[in-house]
Design goal:
The chain is an alpha/beta fold and about 450 residues long. The protein is built from 16 helices and 14 strands. The chain has two domains: about 10-375, TIM Barrel, CATH 3.20.20; about 380-435, no CATH class. The protein has an eight-stranded parallel β-barrel with strand order 5-6-7-8-10-12-13-14, surrounded by four helices. Strands 1-2 form a two-stranded parallel ribbon. The structure holds D-xylose (XLS) and nickel (II) ion (2 copies).
């Protein structure tokens, strides 16, 4: 392995280790149920944040300057950057990465030139994947950065922009297939509106659905077998995004006959922005069998925007893991660190600390969630709480075999229901007994 990063491979040192550049809980080789922890967790690195992010924010330019970002032209820099990225994926023991088309290859002066550049870079990525064994979790197209998308991509009022976006996704699908991508993501950053004074909401939603159907058709035509994912977000950059949260996403997918083709990519920070918990979004998706993948990050309770921080909150992640494991896992999905360094974190070492912290927190959460499920105390509590629906008239309600008239007779006969405690405080204390075992 080359050493452009000047930092070695990160090794597992155990929970009591005080070595900062080591894993405390993520032991990639650890066998759990006959599968390595690396294969259970399917961690992925977000190319845009970790290799294109410069620390810029709406108030000031970037602060992060990487030594490999100079070279004779944009293509050679893009290749060198890719070499460093794959060195990082290996050193941090992440089996996957994700990208937008424009992250990996610079946009050209025309669509044709952009496609040609992409082809050159993709060939390089393919070699790197083969040499390292690192795989592509998902690909996507950047349909939000370029000024042409200022009024949206699939929901743009100009059909010309719709066509341009379609061409870009067509190419991104081909490239994702070429690199063996296991999923393809749609995050509609500008698929929403800022004012209804200039917006036909009904038409825009129908256009978005038409766009997604065209993508499904094209994937079929070229034999791309990856899972399509929708990544809900309520706002930012638009004031109102159409796939606001998982619940509105389900309504959208079902209304337009897309629910057979899509699952959800749930991002922690987007859940917060929608006024939900991370676990809530996972449960809502899992309840209808549409849990797909996770964009692993967190926001800040005091800042109301998508700060994309690395998540080290073991309690929040343990609850999320309980819901994910109970739903049967993520299938072809994984945990993608859609997270970025803070603006003053300008050292390469910071990139390692950030991912070590995120990976360790997820690995610990995974282990704690497994203990919680194996012991089944919460499961038992919840089962008991609904026991009146397991037999008698409760069962008849669930089976659709009763009527208001019959239930009225039961209510007359049984009189006032007894108040039964939800025992929230007891359960919160019980949860803490697991968290503090960690
Ligand atoms: C932005 C999104 C974005 C998607 C990929 O808020 O999280 O990074 O994950 O387009
Ligand atoms: Ni994301
Ligand atoms: Ni985000």
């Amino acid at each position: 392995m080359q050493n452009l990063l000047k930092i070695g491979k990160i090794n597992y040192a155990g929970p009591t280790s005080e070595t900062p550049l080591s894993f405390k809980h993520y032991n990639p080789a650890e066998l759990i149920d006959g599968k390595t922890l690396k294969d259970h967790l399917r961690f992925s690195i977000a190319y845009w944040h970790s290799f294109r992010g410069t620390g810029g924010d709406p108030f000031g330019p970037g602060t992060i300057v990487r030594p490999w970002e100079t070279g004779k032209d944009a293509i050679s820099v893009a290749k060198k950057r890719a070499d460093v990225a794959f060195e990082f994926f290996q050193k941090i023991e992440a089996p996957f990465y994700c990208f937008h088309d424009r992250d990996i290859a610079p946009e050209g002066r025309s669509l044709r030139e952009s496609n040609q550049r992409l082809d050159k870079i993709v060939a390089h990525f393919k070699q790197l994947q083969q040499a390292t064994g690192v795989r592509l979790l998902w690909g996507t197209a950047n349909l939000f950065g370029n000024p042409r998308f200022m009024n949206g991509a699939a929901t743009n009022p100009d059909a010309h922009v719709f066509a341009y976006a379609a061409a870009q996704v067509k190419k991104a699908l081909e490239v994702t297939k070429e690199l063996g991508g296991e999923n393809y993501v749609f995050w509609g950053g500008r698929e929403g509106y800022d004012t209804l004074l200039n917006t036909n909401l009904k038409r825009e939603q129908a256009h978005l659905a038409a766009f997604l159907h065209l993508a499904v058709d094209y994937a079929k035509a070229i034999g791309f077998k990856g899972q399509f994912l929708i990544e809900p977000k309520p706002k930012e950059p638009t004031k109102h995004q159409y796939d606001f949260d998982v619940a509105s996403g389900i309504a959208f997918l079902k209304t337009f006959g897309l629910d057979q083709h899509f699952k959800f990519n749930i991002e922690t920070n987007h859940a917060t922005l929608a006024g939900h918990t991370f676990q809530h979004e996972i449960e809502v998706a899992a309840a209808v069998g549409l849990l797909g993948s996770i964009d692993a990050n967190t926001g800040d309770t005091l800042i109301g925007w998508d700060t994309d921080q690395f998540n080290t909150d073991v309690k929040e992640l343990t609850l999320a893991m309980v819901s994910i494991l109970r739903a049967g896992g993520l299938g072809s999905g994984g945990f993608n660190f859609d997270a970025k360094l803070r603006r003053p974190s300008v050292d390469i070492e910071d990139l390692f600390h950030a991912h070590i912290g995120g990976m360790d927190a997820y690995a610990l959460a995974f282990k704690l969630a497994r203990q919680i499920l194996a012991e089944g105390k919460f499961e038992q509590f919840v089962a008991d709480r609904y026991a009146t629906f397991d037999s008698g008239f409760g069962r008849a309600i669930e089976q659709g075999k009763t009527s208001f008239k019959e239930l009225e007779q039961i209510a007359f006969k049984l009189g006032e229901p007894k108040l039964r405690s939800g025992r929230q405080e007891y359960l919160e204390n019980l949860l803490n007994t697991y968290i503090h075992r960690g």
